Backbone:
């Protein structure tokens, strides 16, 4: 009986995946557009595969586990790739860090980057951004119960605030909350900051609230995000190599508009960030980036 | 940020790197000597403890040593600020290399000399202090210099664990000055290189001073 069960479930699983594969190839075939000769889209579409730089340590945003990559950035990358006729399993994800993003793009090691990559003037000097495809404010995370009763940035003065090394918020904090300059403690990822809070080695941590919410969910019951503190909304953009014609950039923006309209963006949000962030699905931001 | 300001900021951060390196050279050498003594004294439990410690720690990636020290020790109630934690992690790790290098020096001391010293009635303490360790120390200056140069570069791992040293500041600078990414990295690597070369030269100098003519 046992043997029969496993056999039949294995069979139905196989059948299921055959159907899914067929459905996937059918839908991509249906959507495949024709692209201008020599464009980045034509090149990727022809190759049938693409490399996407992403974060690997941020649950629900860009996260690598034994099951592969998961998260909102991953979903959006697959949706964009799908419009090029590239199947989800043909998208190769490459982990990038805050210091490898720009070199990876300029050296064509990746075709695009969706890695909680905040659009800012400094980055725009060296890369093009399509999007934004998501806007998240930065917030503060503390131990559960908020022992220091932090409710505004001023309350953090004299306490240890953990930030990810190289994060865009660092120069912002130094400029706008200069009294916190001596409070900053640097780790190379927000995940380590979460550990340090739990151990009592730092008092709080800050980064985009999507990431904080995901980390809080991961460390069930030990951390809490102070949603009343919000500063410097970060616009997540699709980083691509800097070009003069902006053709690829404009095409990604058009694609983002399409996935906003057909509900797949909202679905990606619900499946990932929506599982920890309270409130309704936000309205997607209007794409503009650097390719106007 | 002007490039000259970047150079100053990174230069200043190397003070932390150098402090961490110098402090660890002192502490790791002390711990390494103790480990070596433990592994050559004819006391079996001491020998075994030293051997297990050296093999386990030496063969664990430094990042994991850091992780266990920085996030593991607080779990058992031992909390220090991040700089002492980094110093501790680097010391625990580097001492094993010091000990192995020193042991190779000890092995290079002729057995006959040790036997002669024992026959003359020297105690183990006298044997170690006046015969074995001085000779061992002289023959291991070049490999020991390599250990210390490796340590200088290993301090960069502290940047991922709450200590803002040269590599950490480099990452900060890279992110705040996207147009100078490669220049900033080359500058940082250049300073590491200059420091390593300096240590190498110092090692050569010491080696020439203490070299034994056999």
Residues:
């Amino acid at each position: 009986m046992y043997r029969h069960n496993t056999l039949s479930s294995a069979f139905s699983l196989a059948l299921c995946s055959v159907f899914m594969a067929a459905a996937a190839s059918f839908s991509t075939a249906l959507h495949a557009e024709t692209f201008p000769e020599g464009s980045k889209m034509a090149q990727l579409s022809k190759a049938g595969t693409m490399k996407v730089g992403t974060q690997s340590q941020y649950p629900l945003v860009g996260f690598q586990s034994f099951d592969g990559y998961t998260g909102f950035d991953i979903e959006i990358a697959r949706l964009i790739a799908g419009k090029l006729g590239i199947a989800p399993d043909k998208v190769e994800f490459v982990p990038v860090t805050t210091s490898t993003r720009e070199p990876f793009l300029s050296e064509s090691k990746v075709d695009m980057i969706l890695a909680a990559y905040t659009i800012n003037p400094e980055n725009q000097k060296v890369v093009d951004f399509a999007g934004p495809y998501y806007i998240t404010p930065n917030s503060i995370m503390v131990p559960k119960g908020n022992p220091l009763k932090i409710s505004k940035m001023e309350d953090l003065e004299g306490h240890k605030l953990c930030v990810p090394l190289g994060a865009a918020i660092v120069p912002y904090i130094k400029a706008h909350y200069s009294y916190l300059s001596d409070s900053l403690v640097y780790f190379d990822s927000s995940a380590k900051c979460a550990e340090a809070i739990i151990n009592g080695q730092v008092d709080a941590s800050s980064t985009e609230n999507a990431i904080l919410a995901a980390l809080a969910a991961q460390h069930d019951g030990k951390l809490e995000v102070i949603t009343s503190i919000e500063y410097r909304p970060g616009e997540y953009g699709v980083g691509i190599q800097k070009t003069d014609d902006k053709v690829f950039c404009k095409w990604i923006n058009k694609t983002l508009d399409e996935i906003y309209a057909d509900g797949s963006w909202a679905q990606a949000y619900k499946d990932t960030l929506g599982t920890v962030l309270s409130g309704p699905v936000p309205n997607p931001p209007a794409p503009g980036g650097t390719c106007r | 940020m002007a490039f000259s300001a970047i150079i100053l900021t990174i230069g200043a951060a190397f003070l932390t790197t150098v402090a961490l390196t110098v402090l660890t050279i002192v502490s790791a050498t002390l711990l390494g000597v103790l480990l070596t003594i433990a592994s050559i004294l004819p006391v079996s439990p001491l020998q075994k403890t030293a051997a297990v410690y050296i093999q386990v720690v030496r063969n664990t990636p430094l990042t994991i040593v850091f992780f266990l020290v920085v996030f593991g020790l607080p779990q058992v109630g031992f909390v220090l600020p991040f700089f002492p934690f980094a110093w501790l992690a680097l010391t625990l790790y580097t001492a094993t290399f010091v000990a192995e290098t020193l042991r190779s020096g000890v092995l290079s001391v002729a057995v006959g000399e040790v036997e002669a010293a024992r026959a003359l009635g020297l105690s183990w303490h006298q044997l170690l202090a006046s015969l074995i360790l001085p000779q061992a120390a002289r023959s291991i200056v070049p490999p020991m210099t390599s250990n210390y140069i490796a340590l200088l570069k290993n301090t960069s791992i502290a940047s991922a664990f709450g200590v803002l040293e040269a590599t950490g500041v480099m990452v900060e600078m890279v992110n705040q000055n996207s147009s100078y990414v490669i220049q900033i990295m080359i500058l940082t690597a250049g300073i590491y290189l200059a420091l390593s070369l300096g240590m190498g030269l110092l090692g050569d100098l010491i080696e020439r001073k203490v070299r034994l003519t056999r």
